[in-house]
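Margin note: ligand = beta-D-fructofuranose.
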Amino acid sequence: ASRHDHGRTAYHFQPAKNWMNDPNGPFYHNGIYHFFYQYNPHGPTFGTGKLSWGHSVSGDLVNWAFLGAALEPTSPFDADGCWSGSATVLPDGRPVILYTGRDTDTVQVQNVAFPKDPTDPLLREWHKPSCNPVIPQPADVTGNNFRDPSTAWLGGDGLWRFSVAAEVAGVGSTLVYRSADFLRWERNATPLHASPDVPALECADFFPVAERGTEGLDTSAANVAGVRHVLKLSNMADEDYYMVGWYDDAADTFVPAEGERGSDVRKWRRIDHGHLFGAKSFFDASKKRRVLWAWVDETDGHSDDVAKGWAGIQAFPRALWLDTDGKQLVQWPVEEIETLRRRRVALLGAEVGSGGLHEIAGIETQQADVEVIFEIPKLEAAEKFDPKWLQDPGKLCSESGGVGPFGLIAMASGDLQEQTAIFFRVFKHDDMYKVLMCMDLTRSSTKEGVYKPVHAGFVDVNVEKDRSLSLRTLIDHSVIESFGGGGRTCITARVYPEHAATGSSHLYLFNNGSGSVKVSKLEAWELGTASVNLEDVSLPLA
Ligand code: FRU
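Resulting structure:
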């Protein structure tokens, strides 16, 4: 049996078997990338939630070796699960982990862990001091929602801070704690963010970004002119939201750049408009970039997970930086993906007329990296945008208009019975143009019990000035990650095409708009198979 049975991916991170959810504690240390994750070593489901931290290492963010569990639920302060958290690399190079434990009474508390042997290059073993929990659950926390500490950062006063999501008397809050030693923590009276709209938030991430350029900043970078901060929060309905703003490192408060969006995170910007959750970033000092990890859950049936013996993958690591508008993030697969590029096909200056379908042949596209730049010769043909469409952009994806839908059809069976379309539509909006990006999963699989929504998000680009629109798509057996407008709008989803078992799929360009579009450039690469956590590959996959 091939290792791609049951939709196993070729270059996305996943354990050899069992359940995985949130990314935890990523950091770069002495030439090695460390990655941890919510892991159930006992089976392919979340089970009772008594999770461990799985630990893998890599030299290139592409190929990974599994080291076993770094944290296991064996202490009174985490007996019911070592839940999500983060790592901080101290100025002397020693990493420290902050994580949420569910204690013997299932109460959520914050714990600390240090490498047992800081000279071990792989940092395999972690010590949980007996002074844990370093932060018991505060009396005003409700709903037992107090979890997922962020990476810590140094303030101007020399104290460490981290943020953590907490439901405080029914209000969804992001608290800040300060400490000199990671052991004794004091809560700041004012939260970074608070809103009653979503009481139970998770997986806070808080980090600085430069106003100019694509370089990342250390989480503890000086908070000077030219630096903004990003607050990212996850809500329980499987969505990640963020807001760019300004951080006051004396008061530990955060002022959003888009205050008009309000405090309800569901009105903030989306990390990804598809099915992606629990994103967490880290600063990669070796390449001076900020890299984002995020969990991409299974969306087939529970019994499928049990049958295949594994569940959950991570999005391919993305570099991320602030767009020149100072409000939105740009995300792009880390450049190391190019080491996997094999056979390439290209297309220059092709026209795709109304109703056109053009196959991209010559490479195997079940594991591929596709970059397209579209040109829109007749932008004026775009129909007028009706503001009430803002309520339900997904509905617009199923209609055709003057400009679009045009884009890609991926993971298609020969008869097109199964296919996933990723595309744009362009509307005229006042004196501007509005671009919608969609991923239509309704025909992605003929299998029963698969979640097949239409994902949609607007793309904040000036299509009139640019006259072009870019789309990059990573395809990997059971996942499609798409980056629209140079990475300003992302849509990621799992797909379960039944024809995939035949070992080959088709890829097309299409245009269902009434005007033609031009493909000024298309490049598609077949991608090689990375070595991802292969230690257990000799074990039979269920
Ligand atoms: C998010 C989450 C976290 C928690 C972890 C448990 O997916 O619920 O809030 O720490 O998963 O696995």
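The chain has a mean pLDDT of 95.
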